[in-house]
Each structure stands twice: as C-alpha cells, then as structure tokens.
Predict the 3D structure of the following.
Amino acid sequence: MSLSEKLRLGVNIDHVATVRNARGGDTPDPLRAAKLAEEAGADGITAHLREDRRHISDADIDRLMDALSVPLNFEMAATDEMQKIALRHKPHAVCIVPEKREERTTEGGLEVAREENKLAHFIAPLREVGCRVSIFIAADKRQIEAAHRIGAQVIELHSGAYCDAHHEGRLDDRDRELEALREMSRFGHSLGLEVHVGHGLTYDTVKPVAAFPEVRELNIGHFIIGEAIFRGLQPAIAEMRRLMDEERAELKAAG
C-alpha cells in the first residue's frame, strides 16, 4: 500500500442528534453539522440509525442522503427493518454493528464467527445494490477471517479498548491493545479487506493509529462533537484532520 494515500476521516454526527433530542425540536441540526464537517475536511459522514431512534432519526437519514456531497456511512444493526431502509436509500457504505438497547454506546465488535451464515445472507442484498459493506469487529483474527468469508469488503476495528486504557492510565493494556490493532490491520489488509478503525479516538490517541499504513479510514464522532463545544465544530474537525495528516506525512518521510 502506498504511504501517499490519504487517510480518510469519517465524522460521526450521532451526538448532534443526541443534544437535539434531549430537548426536542429541530436544533442543533445534524444535517447542518454534516455540511460543516464537509467544509472542514471530513471525507465522509457516519450516522447510526438505532432501533430505538435515540439520536439519529429516519428523517435525518432522508435529509443526509439528499444533501451530502461526501459519502454517507450508514451504521445499523443486522435486522430486517434496517436492511429495508438501507436497500431503499442505497448509501455509499453500510457498517453492520452490534446493538443492545441498554448500552450507552456500541460496546464491542460484532460476533461474526458465531453468526456467519446469517450475516452472509444479510449482507448479500446490500452488496447487490452497490453498498460497500463494512463489519465492525474486535481486533481478533477469528472475526476478521469470518468477515472475509461472508463477503464484507471492509472491516472497522474497534479501538475502544485501546482508547479506554490510554485515558485510564493503564499503559501496559494500552500498548497491548495498540499492538493488536496494528497486527490485525496488517492481517485484514493481507486478506484484501479495506481496513478502518473507530470508537473512542481523541487528539491524544489518534496518531498511533494513523501511523498504521494499512488503515484507510478513521471514524470519529463523540470526541469531536464534545470538543466542538469549546472550539467550534469546524476547528475541532480541522485539528483532528491536521493530526492525521501530520502522522501520515511523517510515515511517508520515514518510509
């Protein structure tokens, strides 16, 4: 893989909708956030339509599909309802994620190896209509092999354990989780999968992951939306973009 390839940034706008829904009404508007993200250097927009509609709504997806000029990465659970919505809209990318109603956020990767046959049949119609199918999984060889077998084009490795260990000061755990992400990025790439990473990334944790040449995209949301309270949305995104680009430039210079 060429080190000159740009590392893409997908900005997740779910928690703009979380703030809107806390009070009801129309503001803050996730579509406005998505358009500002485009202007600030985002290469794509991620939105998770949960079964309980706790943040992004069906109307948000309708508006994003109509208005975006960058790709929409539609995160969803592997349910019949969500498949029908995705088949109707045909977004650029569909990312299949695990979902439990009681969780605050996505807590881990999808158990692909245990549900291989079901997931293979689930994603086949999505691929047929032209969606690029991604599976959100742990940095685990068994899950990556299963994602490859069922026909996923992309894997997104869950970086939450690495980020949590870093922010809690568990440095041995942090280093172990980072090494797992590094090794499994290489392994996924060796199978011909496009490799993405996401969940929990911040200014403090993004550069080590951006240094993996096999990774093509990072998806970041909660931290950026939180940082936007203090910096503004576009400066918050621009700083993340700068850190990613800086690390890739150093990687290219070294390699």
Q: What stands out?
A: The chain has a mean pLDDT of 94. The first helix runs from residue 14 to 23. The domain at 8-254 is CATH 3.20.20.70 (TIM Barrel). The chain has one domain: 8-254.
